[in-house]
């Protein structure tokens, strides 16, 4: 026995998107891609989340011209905002992160921001001066034609009261940077201060100074360095030729 159900006619129409006309007011919304204004933070630099956030905050509130006023004259319209970032982000970083922030800003070609962080680092209780850090800071500034700022950093180096880390390789890098950007007198001053910094010149030190001073016509500087080289190694400075041959072989291969 089958049960017959009465058929119920469907009288209600269900509207569909196809049957309904939806009208929208046309408009165009454009958004500026802010990421195009800055280089991406590169992977593999061992940056912590705190360091990345600090870098992004600094770059977000800063413009080069305003930072220049803040650094050079102690004023500027963005000073309060920068101070807020330094207080809330930078000064809370541990040593490793703060040094990483400095290095990344240098790699990102942000000389003014890097200089501010460098000055902040020099005020930290854990700070110990390093020739390599000074070399990098001077190079970044000089590469951006900020020669006065680079000279001031060298003045900071001369006035350091804390003991430099004994690092002849970092010292030689500093000499190379100074000479490359025309600070020949500063390079010679560093050479005279080596004993005060607990350093002894090696063959690379002499090669850099003698070769570059002679190439730039600073015969008086070169003569002083040669005299010291003879005292250390004697003879006719054959090691200079040996070093040149080694470098030529490395470049060839």
TrEMBL record:
* A Pfam family annotated for this UniProt entry: PPR_2
Give the highest taxon in the source lineage: Eukaryota
Arranged from A to Z, the UniProt key words for this protein are:
Repeat
Report each PPR repeat as a residue range: 167-201
**Alphabetized GO MF terms:** RNA binding
Cross-referenced InterPro entries, in alphabetical order?
Answer: PPR_rpt (IPR002885), THA8-like (IPR044190), TPR-like_helical_dom_sf (IPR011990)
Identify this protein by name.
Answer: Pentatricopeptide repeat-containing protein
